[in-house]
Every structure is written in C-alpha cells, then in structure tokens.
C-alpha cells in the first residue's frame, strides 16, 4: 500500500517539529520529534516498509525486540494519521 499526504493538509517543518493543518476539519497539531521523523519519511517515500526499515536501521540495530517495537509503533502512528484523514493509503 502506498501512502501520501492528503491534499487537504497544509504542513511545514518548524523548530518544534512538523506542524499540520487539516483544511477540511480545522485540526491543527504539531508532531513531536519521532512523529515528525515518520511524517518526513512518508513524505519522501510514500511506503510503510521503507519508513520502518529506515527507523529500524537508525534505532534498533540488531535488537529484535526494538525492531518489533518500532514496527508496532510506526504502524499504529501511521494508522492514526490515516484514520484522522491526514495521510491517505492506497493500493499500490
């Protein structure tokens, strides 16, 4: 499945993280460092697997437990963004 940022979202990277504004719902939020990193990887790549792979390489190394935790956390975070209409997921 491919991911893309919704056309209804205006966003920018700031010193505090990534700030998002959903123009249709009025939802405004600023993502923390981890959320911002995931957002930028989605914006650059558009696929779940490369996002997880990149973060795993950065933070898990060969630690299997950490790899599983990253996979779970990233999937939950992306799923929440999809549910909130900030990211759209499409069949590739």
From TrEMBL:
It comes from the Bacteria. InterPro entries: PQQD (IPR008792), PqqD_sf (IPR041881). This is PqqD family protein.
């Amino acid at each position: 499945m491919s991911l893309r940022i919704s056309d209804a979202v205006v966003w920018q990277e700031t010193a505090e993280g990534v700030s998002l504004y959903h123009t249709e719902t009025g939802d405004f939020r600023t993502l923390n460092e981890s959320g911002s990193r995931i957002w930028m990887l989605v914006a650059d790549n558009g696929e779940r697997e490369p996002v997880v792979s990149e973060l795993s390489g950065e933070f898990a190394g060969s630690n299997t437990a950490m790899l599983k935790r990253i996979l779970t956390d990233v999937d939950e975070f992306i799923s929440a963004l999809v549910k909130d209409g900030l990211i759209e997921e499409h069949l590739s």
